[in-house]
Amino acid sequence: MPQPTAQNDQTRASRSPHPIGRRLVAGLLAVHTAAWVLSAPAAADGRSDLLRQLAGEYLGATAVVLFATATLLSTRARWLEPWFGGLDKMYRAHRETATLGFALLAAHAATTPWRLTSPGGVPSGLLAFAGITVMVALALGPRLPVLRRVITIGYGRWRILHRFVGIFLIMALAHMLLVDAVVHAMPVPFAITMAAFVTGIGAFLYSLLLARLVRPRRAYTVTAVRRLNDATVEIGLALRRGRPLEFHSGQFVFASFRRRGLREPHPFTVSSAAHDPHLRLTVKAAGDFTRRLPDRLGPGVKAVVEGAYGMMDYRRGGPDQVWVAGGIGVTPFLSWCRDLTEDPGHRIDFFYTVRDRADALFWDEIVAVARRHPRLRPHLHVSSEAGSLTVPRIVARARVDPASTEVYLCGPVPMIRALERGFRDAGAPAARIHFEEFGFR
After folding, report:
1. Which DSSP string do the residues of 3-23 spell out, in sequence order?
2. Where do transmembrane segments lie in this chain (predicted)?
3. What 3-state DSSP class applies to 247?
């Protein structure tokens, strides 16, 4: 956890002190819209279809602003992470802005009057629209049952293709400059749209050419690959050169390995403690990439680790806490447990729910940590024996008041959604229920 090919259905806890990113995006759209409304009367040039032209161009320009925002968010810029409350929320905002941008782009194509007077304008616009349509379909494929049957491209190949979405932004820029557009006579909207193009194309070029040089990356070597069960492995990593990775417990990294089929960076939670000189990644094999790991990795294989990312930190929470881990979602909590070198200062009830007892990886270690820290109370829940873990069961066993308890969740999305609703119904404020979603596609 997190793994886009193996654990897109995993969700984990997170908290950010001031996530203002969405409000900034909304404010940008408001300024953009106001500029069009205030500039529109000055653009009247005698066209009989002026209103339709303005509406179509506004939709297209707004789509550009949204696509530029989405491209910027996809850069994984760490300075943006606190604004959105974590990298997961950045990617979520990326998906939402790109999807809305595509909807507005389609409306732009349907609304704007077609004029074939500019030889390059229409073809470049059509190519941009077609390319973005394909990219959106590939991104939404795993999430929509209708597309899932048709689109079977793996995360690694999709990620490579997704890098080049900026090419279609360049085509869209050519389209805007070549067509006979009303916005050319509207200085402020034109300037905002051009600034969006520069931002989006700049973010694209940064990701393509500079990101690998700028992002914090460390050289590691695989020291061990240990099978924990048929579907889970633990990868040990030792620093090869340079300074060790800086992270706090519960964060995740992007790791790639010098082996065929494993060179594309994938995200994994670091399950070792922050003070441990060696890294440990606990990986569930479910997607193409993660299924290949046990067979292709071994001691001595070189790895590159980028990060760390994530806003998850239980130390920011209140004195009474409930942690709930489902399956492989135990990894960030395991990192927290391994990092406990003194009294955590919180009263923590840690619920670990698994299908069968054989799936309760690291349970003995968690119990051993709890013996050293009496304020940490572990609870193992085996769903094949006791049914699903519910909020009433959690409240009864932990003896907590949901209204004043910090809740951290990590596991399959259906479980998280059910527990989130249950805690809300039990009186827990939304601000006290923390989880991150890891679907990077």
Report:
1. -TTT-TTEEE----S---HHH
2. 20-38, 58-77, 98-116, 122-140, 160-178, 190-211
3. coil
